[in-house]
Amino acid sequence: MKAMDVMSRDVVTVRPGDDIAEAVRLLAEHDVSALPVIDDSGMVVGVISETDLMRREEIGTEKHRPWWLEAMTPGIVLAREFAKEHGRKVDEVMSDSIVSASEETPLGEIATLLEKHRIKRVPILRDGKLVGMVSRCNLIQALASSHVQAGSDARGDRSIRLQLLDRLDGQTWTGFGSRNIIVRDGVVHLWGLVGSEEEHKALIALSEQVPGVKGLSDETFPAY
């Protein structure tokens, strides 16, 4: 399987000039560990994560070194730490070293990136622009769906997934497109929270209408 088979397309983002308070609100509200930073042209220019916000003046977690150790610390390190501790805009705090992958990246390589860089999610880019996100949770979902014996029609599974995601994007009664869907050998696996029993029934009905769907594995759980 590749990144395109498991990635979430509806990704929460911020702009370089946004206030830190807005980034913090989005991290908490959407229960994510990192946000891609997008410029006006749609290019990914950085990532702001929980790690970037651990040392903050507001909560008294700034670094305090003995004077002699601070005197030995390179100025560039001190300047970087000061910006992260006191910055008020996203571009003052974000990491501009971006660990990313493409839609064609195999999941094995995604797992290696997550382990090597000790991160929880990887932005998926196409020509420098964000098209999705793959998280540790997405890999676990893929693993949980692996009991289905996948056939050779990976292209057909991807077509089903894209059709279903496109249909969900056009529905005003659900935000499920921001959750996740995996298709293996024509079987649709639905993952995530649903807000009502009515939404749950509608999601199943919508999934069953997509041409090529052979079955449905309902892994959702209610938030009602």
Q: What would you call the structural class?
A: alpha+beta
The total of beta strands comes to 7
State the shape: elongated
Helical content class: 25-40%
CATH class of the largest domain: Alpha Beta
Largest sheet: 3 strands, mixed
CATH superfamily heading of the largest domain = CBS-domain
> Strand order within the widest sheet?
5-6-7
How does this model look, in words?
By secondary structure, the protein is of the alpha+beta class. It has 2 domains: 1-145, CBS-domain, CATH 3.10.580.10; 148-224, Histidine-containing Protein, Chain: A (2-Layer Sandwich), CATH 3.30.1340. The chain is built from 9 helices and 7 strands. The protein has helices at 3-6, 20-30, 67-72, 75-86, 90-93, 107-117, 136-144, 154-169, 197-209, and strands spanning 34-38, 44-49, 121-126, 129-135, 180-184, 187-194, 215-222. Strands 5-6-7 form a 3-stranded mixed sheet, with helices on both faces. Strands 1-2 form a two-stranded antiparallel sheet.
Brief descriptors of the model:
224 residues, alpha+beta, CBS-domain, Histidine-containing Protein, Chain: A, three-stranded mixed sheet, two-stranded antiparallel ribbon, 9 helices
